[in-house]
Amino acid sequence: MSTRLTVPTARPYEVVIGHGLHADLVASIDDSAQRVAIVHPPTLRHRAEQLRVALADAGREVHLVEVPDGEQAKSAAVLEFCWRVLGESGFTRSDVVVGLGGGSTTDLAGFVAASWLRGVRFVNAPTTVLGMVDAAVGGKTGINTGQGKNLVGAFHEPVAVVCDLDALATLPAAEVRSGLAEIVKCGFIADPSILELVEAAPTAALDAGSAVLETLIAKGITVKARTVAGDLHESGGDGSGGIGREALNYGHTLGHAIERHTGYEVRHGEAISVGMVFVAELARRSGLIDDSLVEVHREMLELVGLPTRYRAEAWDDLLPAMRLDKKSRGSTIRFVVLDALASPRILAAPDEDLLRDSYRAVSA
C-alpha cells in the first residue's frame, strides 16, 4: 500500500509515500527522456546503480553523478562539476535529473536541473525523513555560500517525488530525529494532530519502520503541499490573510545561523529545534503567546530527544548571521512566530535587547 498526494500548484505533481517503490521511481521518468542523470552521495552508490540498471533496461542512457555527503554537496564547485557532466553527456531539455539522497542532495539536484538550459525536468527520490518532509517537496532548490545557507538558488518544482520508506531502514537514529523536527514544526504552524500523535507514541515516532512515522511523514508532506500551493514563490501571503510559505521557516532564522556557526556539524533538525524554542520565547516576550505554549515547545522537542539550548557565547556570531536570513527585508530582520497554536505570523524588527533576552532563555 502507498499514499499518493498531489501538490496542487500551477503544474501539479504527485508525491508517493510507501514501501518498495523502486518501480514507481522508474515509472516517474517518462519515455520522452533519452538521458537521465542520477545525482547521489557515495553512501547511496549501490542504490543509484540499481536504478541505473533498471533505467538502462528501459532504454535510457544513464549517468551517475556522485557528489559529497550532506551540506558539502551544496557548493558552487560541486554545482559546476554537475554542469560539466551534463554538458559532456549532451543533456537536452527533454532529459531528466534525479535527486537520490537526503535534503542536501535534492536541493543540489534541483538547482542543477533549474539552471541547466534554463530548466530541465527533475524527480526527487529522498532517502531521509528530513528530505521527504522538507527538501523534496515545494520546488526550493539551491546551494550554500560562505555567507549563509541556501542564499543562491531557484524555485523549480519536481515532476514527481517518490518517498520509498525502505530507504529509512539503515538511517541512523540521529537522522530520523533530525527529520522529525521538521514534522513537529508542521504541528506547531498548521496541524496540531501531529503533536498529539508524537506525544502519544514518541518511541514509534522515532522508529524508521513504524506505521506511526509513516503517518507523520504523510501529515508533514500534506502541510507543506498545502502551504506551497498557496504561495509557491514565498511572496508573503496565501490569499487568505495568512503569511503563506514563510510559515515553513518557523525556527529557521536562528536554526540556519547555528548550522553556519558550526560549519554544518549540527544537523538541520537539531538547529531548528533550538530555533523554534527561541522564537517561542520571542513571541512570549512580545505578548503574543503565554508561558504554557512555550513549555509545549520544550516538552515536545525534548520528548523525542531534540536539543532546546545552544551555546551562550555564540550570540555575537549568530545575530549577524540572522540578519542575512532570506526573510530579512533591507535592514529589517523578520521572524516567523506564533500568536496561537497553528497561527503563524511575522514579527518584524524586534528590539535587539528582546532578541538577546530570548536567546538567554535557550542558552546552555
TrEMBL record:
UniProt pathway annotation: Metabolic intermediate biosynthesis; chorismate biosynthesis; chorismate from D-erythrose 4-phosphate and phosphoenolpyruvate: step 2/7
A cellular-component GO term for this protein: cytoplasm
Gene Ontology biological-process entries: amino acid biosynthetic process; aromatic amino acid family biosynthetic process; chorismate biosynthetic process
Keywords per UniProt: Amino-acid biosynthesis, Aromatic amino acid biosynthesis, Cobalt, Cytoplasm, Lyase, Metal-binding, NAD, Nucleotide-binding, Zinc
Binding sites annotated in the UniProt record for NAD(+): 69-74, 127-128, 140, 149
InterPro entries: Dehydroquinate_synthase, DHQ_synth_AroB, DHQ_synth_fam, DHQS/DOIS_N, DHQS_C
3-dehydroquinate synthase C-terminal domain ranges (all copies): 179-328
GO MF entries: 3-dehydroquinate synthase activity; metal ion binding; nucleotide binding
Cofactor: how and how many bound: Binds 1 divalent metal cation per subunit. Can use either Co(2+) or Zn(2+).
Pfam family, one: DHQ_synthase
Top-tier EC class: lyase
Residues annotated to bind Zn(2+): 182, 252, 268
Family of the protein in this entry: Belongs to the sugar phosphate cyclases superfamily. Dehydroquinate synthase family.
Role summary: Catalyzes the conversion of 3-deoxy-D-arabino-heptulosonate 7-phosphate (DAHP) to dehydroquinate (DHQ).
Name of the protein described by the UniProt record: 3-dehydroquinate synthase
Organism annotation: Aeromicrobium marinum DSM 15272
Lineage of the species this protein comes from: Bacteria, Bacillati, Actinomycetota, Actinomycetes, Propionibacteriales
Gene that specifies this protein: aroB
